[in-house]
Design brief:
DNA polymerase, domain 1; TIM Barrel; 2 domains; 10-stranded mixed beta sheet; two-stranded antiparallel sheet; 12 strands; disordered C terminus; binds S-adenosyl-L-homocysteine
Length: 338
């Protein structure tokens, strides 16, 4: 506002319009002087992305595919469960980590999202809620490696969590990472009360090297030490995510190894039954294997939950919608189902 020669306090009015009243255009901001309302849209828009697909699953899951002006697309998801309204947001277009079971990284990383693009996902999803409902939780578990875009992510989250933004509690925000030790320490030093989730997927070096290729350079020890440092610095209990792949890392000895790794840590294990990705040849674990895995961890005194699979009919997991739409678009120029 100041740069354009307008009084600064108008910026605050615009923020209130966007955050509280869900305004998506300057034209309707009737508390701004008319001259300004008419001048500003020539320079700026509230949102830069357009929704290129919106899919709704009967279990209360909405998925948006947002296209940015450069044509690149990311996914984000809204999940309703009892009184929780949780969103899952992306930090990059694609991903450079190359985890072998994940759809987001199949074509590498294209670029980081800006803090505006990260914030915009939050607002677009929030705007889907009925007027009386508020977002309660954010998980940064969409496309991309969150900590590879740490600065833009924190800028966006800090504003979302501030009273000037949505006023969401930072304790209800979880940042998921493949486990980049230096970035975990940098985040710890920022001293925010965000929760950290580390995608472990294997409790031995050899198996993790196979599933999470960046582990070859990093090593399990360095990941665990950084996670311990995060807990010490912030007092926030760290979650370890573990995608269960049938016959690969869901065997009794895998559960024993994970139990042994976590038993003396004040940590939580979140088991994620694999969501099938077209063109990737892993299988979901059997319910019996999941049950036994949980039991073994409990015997080791490790706190454990199994992530519920939501939004399956709409390819809600992990880069699957973008992949399907972009594959369809290559096959035929038809507009994706909105
Ligand atoms: N790059 C970050 C965040 C994005 S992925 C990270 O690695 O944590 C969020 C979680 O979904 C990660 O634990 C990831 O390994 C998991 N995931 C990816 N593909 C999956 C699939 N097909 N089924 C189940 N979980 C998957």
């Amino acid at each position: 506002m100041a740069e354009q020669g307008h009084p600064r306090f108008h910026a605050r009015q615009v923020m209130r319009q966007v955050f509280d009243r869900r305004a998506t255009e300057f034209a309707g901001m009737t508390d701004l002087p008319k001259r300004l309302r008419e001048a500003v849209p020539q320079e700026w828009t509230v949102f830069t992305g357009t929704i290129s697909a919106h899919e709704v699953s009967p279990d209360g899951t909405d998925k948006l595919l947002i296209a940015w002006p450069d044509g690149r697309r990311v996914e984000c998801v809204l999940m309703a469960e009892e009184d929780r309204r949780t969103i899952c947001i992306s930090t990059q277009v694609g991903c450079g980590m190359g985890c072998v079971f994940c759809a987001s990284g199949l074509k590498g990383v294209e670029r980081n999202l800006t803090s505006g693009e990260i914030m915009e996902q939050v607002l677009q999803l929030r705007n889907l809620l009925p007027a009386e409902e508020r977002l309660t939780n954010i998980v940064v578990m969409g496309m991309g490696e969150s900590l590879a875009n740490l600065d833009n992510l924190i800028t966006a989250l800090d504003l979302i969590c501030s009273p000037d933004g949505l006023g969401l509690s930072p304790r209800r925000v979880t940042i998921s990472t493949v486990g980049l030790p230096e970035k975990i320490r940098k985040l710890a030093a920022m001293d925010r009360p965000y929760n950290l989730a580390v995608s472990l997927h294997a409790a031995t070096e050899a198996l993790r090297d196979q599933l999470v290729p960046v582990n070859e350079k990093i090593g399990l020890n360095a990941v665990m030490e950084a996670a311990d440092a995060y807990f010490e610095q912030t007092g926030r209990q760290v979650t370890f995510e573990y995608v269960l792949l049938h016959g690969v890392n869901d065997r009794p000895e895998d559960a024993e190894a994970l139990g042994r790794l976590l038993v003396h840590r004040k940590a939580h294990a979140n088991l994620i039954p694999y969501n099938p990705v077209a063109g990737v040849s892993f299988e979901r674990p059997s319910p019996e294997a999941v049950r036994q895995f949980v039991e073994t961890l409990r015997r080791w005194n490790v706190s454990v939950t199994v992530r519920k699979t939501k939004g399956r009919p709409i390819d809600a997991a992990c880069g699957q919608l973008r992949r399907r739409v972009e594959t369809d678009l290559v096959a035929s120029p038809a507009v994706p189902q909105a």
